[in-house]
């Protein structure tokens, strides 16, 4: 039997490594008191209204979902003002990122994204066999003028994130508008806003969609809304762009229970406000803890923070695992990314970090 090799881009691809699950650490070390601060999940879980809505629909598991996603698109329309034909639903925003690349990029094209940006941008580019143009970051932030200058004749897509994962950095509306004015009309810009709900006052992206028909705004329900296990994301764009996206979107890519949950989550504004308050308090707690330990960090507008542990991040990560704390190495020298947890979870992490680094907090 002749072996048929994979496409070159696939053959050389290193799969995305998600945060270590709690169950895996339990199996490996036999630890039961574990805090997971690795995957930027909402420490409150999801809204009780979401649980009630999903429970009421369990009898529908035997039915295929609505492939057009009417109920979720209708809620997005009510909340954000965009028509159904401007909305693309995804199995989480990762699904959408792949759809964007497959819709507009071929192996003869290039994709622009920043250093220290979400790993999936590079993965989808490589999978297609397109040229990756990774623009050096400015510190830990996107260098938007340099990214605009890096666009070539064969560039079809630009990925930018605000706030950025894994650094938590952000840019302002004026910086973004200046960037968009430099982008050729044939180049599609994806604005990945997975964490925008935590600091909504920072940036209003939606007002730019009418002005720039080559813009896609991508959002997820996995973070602030607390639906990580159900995998729901949505994209907003012009009618023309959305039409192309939905031509290659897999049928039934968002399941019925996920859509029901997403509708309930979008409606529950009180839960989102509580999540914001818990996140801001937790961020302040970690910042104060790092200051007391003499550790620097990158200011963040997300639900995680990048801290300089002044040591090998892999060794520190492994040492923290033995203390029952899961964080995330992100490929940046000396740095670990830490999700914001509850007050008790944050305290456990800070105590464990001080122990493994041999540091003593200063009053």
From TrEMBL:
Pathway this chain belongs to: Amino-acid biosynthesis; L-histidine biosynthesis; L-histidine from 5-phospho-alpha-D-ribose 1-diphosphate: step 7/9
Keyword hit for Protein biosynthesis: no
Protein known as: Histidinol-phosphate aminotransferase
Family: Belongs to the class-II pyridoxal-phosphate-dependent aminotransferase family. Histidinol-phosphate aminotransferase subfamily.
GO biological process: L-histidine biosynthetic process
InterPro entries, per database record: Aminotransferase_I/II_large (IPR004839), HisP_aminotrans (IPR005861), HistidinolP_aminotransfase (IPR050106), PyrdxlP-dep_Trfase (IPR015424), PyrdxlP-dep_Trfase_major (IPR015421), PyrdxlP-dep_Trfase_small (IPR015422)
Catalytic activity: L-histidinol phosphate + 2-oxoglutarate = 3-(imidazol-4-yl)-2-oxopropyl phosphate + L-glutamate
Modified residues (N6-(pyridoxal phosphate)lysine): 223
Keywords tagged on the record: Amino-acid biosynthesis, Aminotransferase, Histidine biosynthesis, Pyridoxal phosphate, Transferase
Limits of the Aminotransferase class I/classII large domain: 32-353
Names of the cofactor(s): pyridoxal 5'-phosphate
Class of enzymatic activity (EC top level): transferase
UniProt KW Amino-acid biosynthesis keyword: yes
Top-level taxon: Bacteria
UniProt gene name: hisC
Assembly: Homodimer.
Pfam families found in the cross-reference section: Aminotran_1_2
EC annotation from Swiss-Prot or TrEMBL: 2.6.1.9
GO molecular function terms attached to this record: histidinol-phosphate transaminase activity; pyridoxal phosphate binding
